[in-house]
Amino acid sequence: MNNNNYLEDFITRSTYHSNAIEGSTLTYAETYAILFNDNSFKISGREPREIYEAINHKKAMNVLFEKLKSDDLELNEEFIKKINETINQDIRDTKGYRKVSVMIKGSDDIPPKPEQLNNLMMYFVYNYNHNETKDIFEKIAGFHIEFEHIHPFEDGNGRTGRLLINFELLKNNIPPIVIPKEERTKYFELLRSKDITALASWLKELSDKEKERIELFNSSNS
């Protein structure tokens, strides 16, 4: 992740696809212009929310990168809340876990009640940190499926969860992933099925593709 050209590419793709999965209509070019102040590209007719979503996703990625530089790499609730708070900045004035019941779009899964969240999240994070599953992709897949089921926040659970996948991958020196918006249906089906093995296999496939992309950027700079 030391290649600045790759980093810019990764931040743009990650932001564009993650937000598009949630319904953003920004184009890739618009996303890049917003994130990297490309004033030569004019953006008009877009909802302010979509622009904030792009800006906030980049800010949340920077929160992630800063934690990766720290001595404390263990996943904790404070970090999870910080990621979500950053994602919702200037969009939704909510901090911490949700205080209302929610439904998961396109799913029959019913998330836990708000009063259950403090205990659930405490045990969820503890169990993940003490999970001795040797296959890191299976460990992360199980984590992501459970996180999206709990749906601890009012908004931004998907974006938060996908950033946490990349935090755990990068923490373990594994290339990150970008889930393409074109594979949104497959992604949601894997979450609905709660098939850890299938999701783990797909995450590894996406990470392997990203490794090839990183190598391409590195070779073009050498």
UniProtKB/TrEMBL annotation:
Protein name in UniProt: Fic family protein
Source organism: Candidatus Onthousia excrementipullorum
Site (Important for autoinhibition of adenylyltransferase activity): 22
PROSITE patterns: FIDO
Positions with a binding annotation for ATP: 155-162
Domain of life: Bacteria
Single GO molecular function: ATP binding
Keywords: ATP-binding, Nucleotide-binding
Annotated ranges, domain Fido: 75-208
Record Pfam families: Fic (PF02661)
UniProt-listed SUPFAM superfamilies: Fic-like (SSF140931)
Active-site residue numbers: 151
